[in-house]
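Is magnesium ion placement plausible here? Inputs below.
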Amino acid sequence: MTEKKPGFFQRLFGTPPVQTPEQSPPETPVTPDAIPDIPEPEAEPPEPVEPAEPTEPPPAPKHDWPPGPPETTPDYIEDVEDDLAAAPQPVAEPEQPKGWFARLASGLKRSSDNLTNSITSVFTKRKLDAATLDELEDVLIQADLGIDTAMAITETLRRDRFDKDVSGEDVRAVLAAEVEKVLGPVAEPLVVDSSKKPFIILMIGVNGSGKTTTIGKLAQKFAAEGKSVMLAAGDTFRAAAIEQLQVWGQRTGAPVIAKPAGADASGLAFDAVTRAKAEGRDVLIIDTAGRLQNRDELMNELEKIIRVIKKVEPDAPHATLLTLDATTGQNALKQVEIFGQRAGVTGLVMTKLDGTARGGILVAIAKKFGLPVHYIGVGEGVGDLEPFEAADFARAIAGRD
Ligand SMILES: Nc1nc2c(ncn2[C@@H]2O[C@H](COP(=O)(O)OP(=O)(O)OP(=O)(O)O)[C@@H](O)[C@H]2O)c(=O)[nH]1
Ligand SMILES: [Mg+2]
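Reply from A.M.:
I modeled the complex. Tokens:
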């Protein structure tokens, strides 16, 4: 293989999160100069059926939003902006490619640094008393871990270590154990049921959360397993979104069912399911337009897409995956709740865990909803999607290597 992911670790480790709000905010248009135009994706010509590990992802498209009332900046975007403004600018360090855990740990470094530095400052030469436990609880809640998990951690310490000397390392061990306890039950692989032909996956989420990129990464994984994959460009709002999926299709050898921009998304889904069925495909992955969970008319449209899919395949979609942007913070809880209610989410993919300070939110989500977490994304490249492992995540976020 040629050199893997040039600049990858610089993105992961040495620079602020790739996904700045300016580049692809969930509700505001991407600035034209932030993202190159499709269709001029790098130097690579489209190669039909040779999915040999592309090194660069197709560029995300410019966003031409559908007509609708202008949005105000969602709270969590402001949170992300605050976060970025407050974040120290790390110095870029060229690094060699590392193993998976090291990549995860690098990606979660900002989350774990925030957490472990705060823990260390709370626990420097102190006996464990009620005030220290309160301070620790605040630190854990601020790290987005959620009140339940924060309390579980402080309760464990209160029970086992009260009035004893406690080091930051002791606390990190309890933190890792508690996080693993919460995440263990939700770390479930995405199982493609081969009795379903096709196994239909619907990809949903707010704008810019990583749906299309995750589809490309999944298509690559399935193709590598010998499955025959079809993609459906269900984000019919924007020509660039269709082209973005087509680029992934070319790179992973998966045919893409598409219609011109402006076509009805549910009609497209209907055609795609019918075609995939007729061709005996193993997997059909349907992309959808990004939508904020509080946009009722867009959520209605999503429900319609699902109804129409069911007309062809009553038990489909077999998996409805919600992509969550790890840089989002607390709003992700709302996304899971509303998308869950409206679209019957069956599993989660958390993207952009490379370089976020807010990875702790996955723990709060797991605790509150108990939905399976199938994969996590740690970069823009086709190989940057990994099955979710609770123990690794817990170790990484607690800064234990
Ligand atoms: N750093 C990083 N970037 C990612 C990851 N996943 C996706 N991205 C980037 O996030 C941006 C948005 O990704 P898309 O896949 O286009 O997101 P989307 O949900 O399809 O967006 P819309 O269709 O506009 O709603 C792109 O620039 C991707 O390359 C990830 O795991 N890490
Ligand atoms: Mg998309």
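Short version: The longest strand covers residues 319-325.
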